[in-house]
Amino acid sequence: MIKNRLIGPFTQLVTMDNLPLKGSVHDNQLEIIPNGGVVVCEGKIVKTGNFDELGIEFGDRNTVIDYIDNEMVAIPGMIDPHTHICWAGSRANDYSLRLAGKSYLEIALGGGGIGDTVEKTRLASTTELEASLTERAKNYLRNGVTTIEVKSGYCLNTEGELKLLEVIGKVNKKLAVDLIPTCLAAHIKPSDFHGNPSEYLKSIINELLPEIKRRNLSARTDIFIDSGAFTIAEAREYLNVAKAMGFDLVVHGDQFTTGGVALACELNARSVDHLDMTKEGDIQLLAASGVIPVVLPGSSLGLGNPFAPARKLLDAGCSLAIGSDWNPGSAPMGDLLLQTALLGIFEKMTMAESLAGITFRAAMALGLTDRGILKKGLLGDIAGFPVSDYREIIYHQGSLNPSVVWKRGEKGIF
Questions:
Q1: Residues 6+ apart with CB under 8 A from 96
Q2: Can you spell out the DSSP letters for 236-272?
Q3: Rounded (5°) CA angle 376-381-384
Q4: What does the domain layout of the chain look like in residue ranges?
Q5: Predicted confidence (pLDDT) per residue in 309-340, tens digit
Q6: Which residue, of 20, 273, 278, 302, is most buried by count of CB atoms within 10 Å of its CB?
Q7: How far apart are CA 302 and CA 52, in angstroms?
C-alpha cells in the first residue's frame, strides 16, 4: 500500500507560494507557516500546513512521519538554472593569469579559455566524466540544490557533444538530483573546424541536433553571443532553425558586449543568461517579454567584473533567476547560495527576491512548472536549515548549509 510521508514540524515553512513571477518582491509577501508540515506521496506534495493539524488529518497507518526534533527552517529545494559542470581538467593557469592582469579574451587568444577545456574534455573517458559530474552533482544536493541545469559545450564536435549529453543522462538516472541537459555545441567555433563560424553552426544543425532529437538527449539549445564566439546574425539563423526543430532556446547574452538580450526577446527564448552589460533599453525589452533573465554572479566574481544589474531588472518589472555558471574557467566556485547572498548585498535585493531567484523563478527559466514552490501537486523537494528564522539563510552569506535535504520526499544525504 502506498504511504504518505509527513515531514515536520518545521519552525518555519517558507513555501514561496503566491509570489509574482516578475518584478520586485518584499519579504512581507512571503508565506511562512509556523510549526509547518509537508505531506508527500509518490514524490509529490499532498498538502502543506500546521504540522499538528496535518498529523490529525493524516495520522493513520498509511502515514509515516519524518519527525524533526530541533529548530529547522524549510524552503523549496534550490534550483541552479545555468551550469557547465560536465568537464575535465583545470583552468587554474587561466585564473593565475587573470590575477596578473590578463583579460578573459587575452587568455583565450593565448591558448587558454574554453579551447583549453575542450582539449582536455575530448581526451577524457566517459568513465572519468561520469565520476567528476557525479561528485559535483552530489555536492550540489548536499547543499540543498535539487535541480541542476547542465550544459554540454566542451567537446564541440558531433561525437564529443553526444558523449557529454549521454554522460549527463546517465548520471541523471543514477542520482536523486535532477539534471536538466542543454546542448551548448554553439559555445565557440573550435580551432580544428576548417570553416567559418556560420559553417560550424550549420554542421551542428545538420549533424548534431537531429541526433540529439533522435536519442532524446536534450530539449534545449544554447548559444554564446559575444566577441570570440558568435555574432547576432549567426545566432539568429541558428536559433531560428533550432526553434523550428522543437528546441527551447537559451542565449548566453550581454556578458562582454550587448545585443544578446534583443535577440532573445525577438525569438521568445526561454531565458537569456549573463546580462552583465545590459542597458536600460534592453531591460525594458525584457520587462515586456516572457524571457527570463538569468544573472550569474559566480562569473562576475571569477572575472572580477561588476554584477549584472539585478536591482534595475527587478524594478523594471522583469523576472530574475540566479545561476552559479559553475565552470572551470570564469566561475570555478560553484556555490549557488553564497553567490546569491553576495549578489543580494551588492544589488540591494530583498531576501524574498534572492530566494525567488533560486527557487520558482529559476524553475521557470528551465520551463519547469512542477517545482520551486512547496504546494500541493508539486515535487517534494525541500532544503531544511538548522535555524529558527529564514533570514539566517541569506544572512550567513553561504556559510550556512542545509542539515537535511529531501528529494521527492525522500530524506537523505544522497
A1: none
A2: HHHHHHHHHTT-EEEEEESSSSS-HHHHHHHTT-SEE
A3: 115
A4: 4-77+373-412, 79-365
A5: 999 999 999 999 999 999 999 999 999 999 99
A6: 273
A7: 47
